Amino acid sequence: MWLLNSSVGRKVIMSVSGLALILFILFHMSMNLVAIISPDSYNLICEFLGANWYALVATAGLAALVVVHFVYAFILTLQNKKARGGQSYAYTAKPKGVEWASQNMFVLGVIVLLGMALHLYNFWAKMQLVEVMHMIGAHVNTDLATNGVYYIKETFSCPVYVVLYIVWLVALWFHLTHGFWSALQTLGWNNQVWFNRWRCIGNVITTLIILGFMAVVVYYFALSLCGGACCAAC
Amino acid sequence: MDKNISFNLKVWRQRGPKEKGMFVTYPMKDIPGDTSFLEMLDILNEELVNKGEEPIVFDHDCREGICGMCSLYVNGHPHGPATGATTCQLYMRRFKDGDTITVEPWRSAAFPVIRDLMVDRTAFDKIQQAGGYVSINTGGIPDANAIPIGKDVAEEAMDAAACIGCGACVAACKNGSAMLFVSAKVSQFALLPQGQAEAARRAKSMVAKMDELGFGNCTNTRACEAECPKCISISNIARLNREFVKAKLKD
């Protein structure tokens, strides 16, 4: 199978799984913004995407994408290290036009993955997982399982989480600014004209996604800071 | 007239493929700025021979930037700090008095060191032999405009054909990938009608050979394009990916 046993094929796997994950976080970010506009509607979305069959199928699909993307990143990185040879250069200089992110995609990816683990612990384990546990008959309290806003408030009132989430999002920004155009280059959908266009489109999409996610973090952190005072005012 | 400069030359010395190598520093005195980098090495080698020491081994041939034989990783750049130039086109006026200049061979698993600064680039010949040609007899030079080809297409094919196969792309790449070389060789044919008949087979067999020889996987860092002495663009890599994916989907 050419996808598995050729270098270009393995890169196509990275490219397609990466693009699918970008689409997912675009969707995820749009839903998060609802939490600022209307907390009640946000909880409705949480209910809609709880332990329903379609949400569970989608979750499994996403998990598979992440696993494929990470496993192939790991394999490719190992192969590339081997291809580099045992002896490294004594003197290295960064050539002009080389993005920092492009040479550190694996490290950035690991940061993104660690952030994702924290995120799953903060939200998924308390929401969808609780519902699933309830469905299979475990004794769990499902009162708050679809109350996303409650968990957002709880998580982002803690400054440590706010900082960790921002570090995570910045790493994701760097990862995606390279990843987006690189994915299209790998698929062969690029030339001298489209190179700059894709880079520009990628930077805009990435920046919008990251700003959207950050808005929720910062908004709820600010809300927790002036919590009492604001409520008194309204 | 350029000024004379004195500097230290830190050179990788390695007696054979299996031997352990190390850096040796040679002080160089009063080298005129208009000496080429390779002439400077010739001066040093003459001194070494006169002293009864082994001269430094390095690849070179035409010394005018077209044969692709010279290599050398100078101060962290394949072919040195100049852009769009090979090592033989590098002059000592680029360096300052009192500098330490580090000279290393290409480093890549697919390019093992033969001796000192000379590496074995047979891998590139093998990739070429896997499909980097047109196997039909195209006869003599056709009349101009007998086969109409657009000017931009002709220019792009010519730009790809400018690749001299020196291996700077592999040396610059943190993944030891040969994609820039292979993509230039595939593109120069894929763009022209004479090469299109065998385009799918060529892309498949050249990529397969490249993988087999232990080159890495391209991650689009663009270091190759920045260091290429012939300024080959990574849009050729996109074309190779496109040709390869198209050929595989058709199978």
Helix content of chain B: 25-40%
Query: Strands across the major sheet of chain B, in which order?
Result: 2-1-5-3-4
Secondary structure class of chain B reads alpha+beta
Order of helices and strands of chain A: HHHHHHHHHH
Which spans of chain B have pLDDT < 50 for at least 5 consecutive residues? none
Describe the largest sheet of chain B.
5 strands, mixed
Q: What is the overall shape of chain A?
A: globular
CATH third-level topology of the largest domain in chain B: Fumarate Reductase Iron-sulfur Protein, Chain B, domain 2
Average pLDDT of chain B, rounded to a whole number, is 95
Give the CATH H-level superfamily of the largest domain in chain B: Alpha-helical ferredoxin
What does this protein look like?
The complex is a heterodimer of chains A (234) and B (251). Chain A has 234 residues and is mostly helical. Chain A has one domain (11-73, 99-224). In chain A, 77% of the residues lie in helices and 0% in strands. Chain A is globular and about 55 Å long. With 251 residues, chain B is of the alpha+beta class. Chain B folds into 2 domains: 4-114, Beta-grasp domain (Ubiquitin-like (UB roll), Roll), CATH 3.10.20; 122-250, Alpha-helical ferredoxin (Fumarate Reductase Iron-sulfur Protein, Chain B, domain 2, Orthogonal Bundle). Chain B has a 5-stranded mixed β-sheet. In chain B, strand 6 and strand 7 (118-119) form a beta hairpin. The longest helix of chain B has 16 residues, at 235-250. Chains A and B meet through helix 2, helix 4 and helix 8 of A and helix 7, helix 8 and helix 9 of B.
Short description:
Chain A has 234 residues and is mainly α. Chain A has 10 helices and no strands. In chain A, helix 2 packs across helix 3.
Chart the SSEs and their pairings.
The complex is a heterodimer of chains A (234) and B (251).
Chain A: H1 2-5, H2 7-37, H3 39-48, H4 53-84, H5 105-122, H6 128-135, H7 148-156, H8 159-186, H9 192-225, H10 227-233
Chain B: E1 4-13, E2 22-32, H1 37-50, E3 73-74, E4 77-78, E5 100-104, E6 113-115, E7 118-119, H2 122-129, H3 151-161, H4 168-172, H5 179-190, H6 193-196, H7 199-212, H8 223-227, H9 235-250
Parallel strand pairs in B: 1-5
Antiparallel strand pairs in B: 1-2, 3-4, 3-5, 6-7
